[in-house]
Structure to design on (394 residues):
């Protein structure tokens, strides 16, 4: 339209300034009329072509913008395994590209939809009420039936949003909503939305498949660990139990007279086996509580020297059969942790060292601060270069 008006005014000004009589719109020579007609026809033709080229250039720029944003989106979520990140990136890029408010809803483990990403075109959002009850009902219907519903459609058109299901094959993995208000979506925008939604659905399906693969691998590893643990526990329980049964049977045999030293050795064997079985049972109970989430950590300040001493006292006279030495640095700081669990861990380490070492071996327990400056490990802080401890068999 601007080019047509410009052509018309150009002919009028040319007539007014240059065609006699000048400074009037009158024309004495009929030949000028044909010139005016030719000028107008050519101007209208060139103006029409210009408008067409301008429209095609605008469409090309918009397509370039769409392709660029889609590429940016695909690059950002290529290695993302967080559904919230995918939802937010989808809502942000689509909202900025369409200049409209958007919502992305994903189901939880109970198949209930929740808003996982959103974008507000006007920059103002109500976080307490991202989706009204009526809009949520339309989104749920779209999720359950796998159909495009809402504004600009024939199904539930009374809302403000157009809801498009994120489909991966026959599975609906989420819902994308775009606010239309009074302006319906154009065919170009519909194609763009379908492209984005299809790509996002593939990304979501990839994340879910990755999670299923990870869970399957965890189940396989857990089964292997359970088998190994069962075999280990069977051995750990059978050995001291055999010792206890054998020593008790010998003591109960009234036909044999044992010396006081032999009797004491048999009783010590029963005590040692009972203590060892107790440690195994305690470890099993702690493991069961950890798996059930019932084990509560008591995070408090602990002295490493007290932990080592309590562990050695708990092991008891068994340590007399080995040469156990402690080399604890004098400048060891206090650490935060559960004293009982740390003591149990130290007991297990010393017990393993004695179990797999020849009788009379030297076992050295050391603890040193590994360089740097110790920092508080309270919430909000972190432990930098903590002390390092180990048990050494000689």
């Amino acid at each position: 339209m601007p080019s047509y008006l410009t052509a018309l005014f150009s002919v009028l000004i040319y007539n007014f300034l240059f065609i006699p009589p000048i400074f009037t719109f009158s024309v004495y020579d009929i030949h000028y009329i044909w010139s005016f007609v030719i000028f107008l026809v050519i101007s209208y033709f060139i103006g029409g072509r210009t408008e067409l080229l301008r429209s095609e250039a605008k469409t090309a720029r918009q397509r370039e913008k769409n392709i660029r944003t889609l590429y940016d989106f695909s690059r950002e979520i290529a290695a993302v395994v967080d559904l919230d990140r995918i939802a937010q990136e989808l809502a942000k890029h689509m909202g900025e590209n369409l200049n409209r408010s958007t919502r992305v809803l994903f189901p939880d483990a109970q198949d209930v939809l929740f808003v996982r990403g959103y974008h507000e075109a006007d920059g103002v959002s109500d976080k307490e009420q991202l989706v009204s009850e009526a809009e949520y009902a339309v989104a749920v219907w779209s999720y359950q039936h796998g159909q495009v519903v809402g504004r600009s459609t024939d199904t539930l058109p009374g809302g403000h949003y157009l809801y498009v299901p994120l489909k991966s094959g026959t599975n609906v993995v989420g819902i994308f909503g775009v606010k239309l208000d009074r302006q319906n979506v154009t065919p170009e925008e519909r194609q763009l939305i379908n492209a984005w939604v299809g790509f996002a659905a593939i990304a979501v399906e990839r994340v879910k498949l990755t999670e299923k693969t990870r869970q399957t691998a965890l189940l396989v590893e857990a089964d292997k660990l359970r088998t190994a643990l069962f075999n280990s526990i069977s051995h750990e329980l059978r050995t001291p139990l055999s010792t206890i049964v054998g020593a008790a049977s010998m003591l109960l045999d009234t036909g044999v007279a044992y010396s006081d030293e032999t009797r004491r050795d048999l009783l010590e064997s029963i005590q040692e086996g009972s203590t060892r079985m107790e440690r195994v049972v305690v470890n099993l109970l702690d493991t069961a509580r950890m798996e059930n989430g019932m084990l509560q950590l008591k995070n408090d300040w602990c002295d490493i020297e007290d932990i080592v001493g309590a562990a050695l006292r708990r092991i008891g006279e068994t340590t007399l059969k080995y040469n156990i030495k402690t080399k604890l640095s004098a400048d060891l700081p206090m650490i935060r942790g559960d004293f009982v669990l740390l003591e149990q861990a130290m007991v297990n380490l010393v017990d393993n060292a004695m179990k797999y070492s020849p009788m009379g071996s030297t076992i050295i327990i050391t603890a040193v601060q590994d360089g740097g400056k110790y920092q508080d490990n309270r919430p909000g802080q972190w432990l930098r270069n903590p002390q390092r401890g180990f048990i050494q068999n000689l």
About this structure: DSSP finds eight helices and ten strands in the chain.
